Amino acid sequence: MPVLLDVDTGIDDALALLYLLGEPRAKLLGITAMEGSVPLAQVARNTLAVLRLCGREDIPVALGAKKPLLGRFSPSGKVSIHGENGLGNVSIPDPVRRPAPCRAVELMARLIEESPERVTVVAVAAMTNLATFLLCYPHLKEKIEQLVLMGGAAWCRGNFSPVAEANIGRDPEAAQIVFSAGIPIKLAGLDVTYKAYATAAEREAWRDCGTRAGRFAWEMFIHYAAFYEGAPGCALHDPLAAAWVLDEALVRSLPAHLEADLCGRYTRGATAVDVGGAKTGRPCNALVGVEVDREAFAHRLLAALRRLP
Ligand code: BDR
């Protein structure tokens, strides 16, 4: 299955990337990156370094947005769950190549245009790159099979504001453009990604699986797991979106009409999920994840890490 990945690499973005690289059914055509969990230059470095670690320097990486469609990203001011370098402060060799000499949206357009099959886009950052692409290249929408998005919080509280999840809250206008594009959407929001956690024993199995990718994943998550002390495990937000691409049955979902709130005084960036369109009478534009087969997911993730160098 041809896949494009949009990231702001980040610990769980890096694990989503490893998942796709270790999944023989996914053909990762290219990666686009934007500012997010860490500044754009660090996102670029992290993404290229993870590809180098896995011997996949053939996969093009292009850089996109440094700010949301409107305004600027506000500095978080808190100790980041991703660590100072975005990879849990784990050091891996620097990349030996630079990002592609084109913008993220140009790379997306070229790869989608050239692909003989329709392409699945997995976006696990704010949706600025994706929204910009849809505005610039509307004729290419029909070549997109589906959008699998990590973002939103329908019934649980937010992690960016009391009600907004980070990938939507950081650029709600972009999210709304994506939600209304008319392309089939699968939304892996906090409601289901918090249920897709990895226990300490499962992370130790990554370490012991015999690959440097597995050991790197375990090491990164030492920093991340510290933020989940007292919980049964740490949430694998972005990897769940990657996994859902290949295995529909991993996630139980509900069809819904989905909107990003743009104007609420306290609710800007919240995702309004109307199951079945029952309350608004609007058509369903997304499948919203509600439950995950956590054990099957853990098993597939470990298998993917085992296949890598
Ligand atoms: C999202 O925010 C980022 O920190 C994670 O990488 C994930 O994409 C979860 O809200």
Q: Helices, strands, pairings?
A:
Blueprint: E1 2-7, H1 11-21, E2 27-33, H2 40-53, E3 61-63, H3 104-114, E4 119-123, H4 128-136, E5 144-150, H5 166-169, H6 172-179, E6 185-188, H7 190-193, E7 197-198, H8 200-207, H9 212-225, E8 234-235, H10 237-246, E9 251-260, E10 271-275, E11 286-292, H11 294-307
Parallel strand pairs: 1-2, 1-4, 2-3, 4-5, 5-6, 6-11
Antiparallel strand pairs: 7-8, 9-10, 9-11
The structure holds beta-D-ribofuranose.
Keywords: Glycosidase, Hydrolase
Protein name: Purine nucleosidase/pyrimidine-specific ribonucleoside hydrolase
GO molecular function, one term: purine nucleosidase activity
Write a structural description.
By secondary structure, the protein is of the alpha/beta class. The protein has a single domain (2-306), classed as Ribonucleoside hydrolase-like (Inosine-uridine Nucleoside N-ribohydrolase, Chain A), CATH 3.90.245. It has 11 helices and 11 strands. It has a 9-stranded mixed beta sheet, sandwiched between helices. Strands 7-8 form a two-stranded antiparallel ribbon. The longest helix has 14 residues, at 40-53. Beta-D-ribofuranose (BDR) binds at residues 10, 12-13, 37, 124, 150, 159, 165-167, 237-238. This is Purine nucleosidase/pyrimidine-specific ribonucleoside hydrolase.
Mean pLDDT across residues = 96
Whole-number total of structural domains: 1
CATH topology: Inosine-uridine Nucleoside N-ribohydrolase, Chain A
Largest sheet: 9 strands, mixed
The level of helicity is 25-40%
What proportion strand? Answer: 15-25%
Order of helices and strands: EHEHEHEHEHHEHEHHEHEEEH
CATH class call: Alpha Beta
Structural class: alpha/beta
Which architecture does the CATH hierarchy give at level 2? Alpha-Beta Complex
Radius of gyration: 18 Å
Low-confidence stretches: none
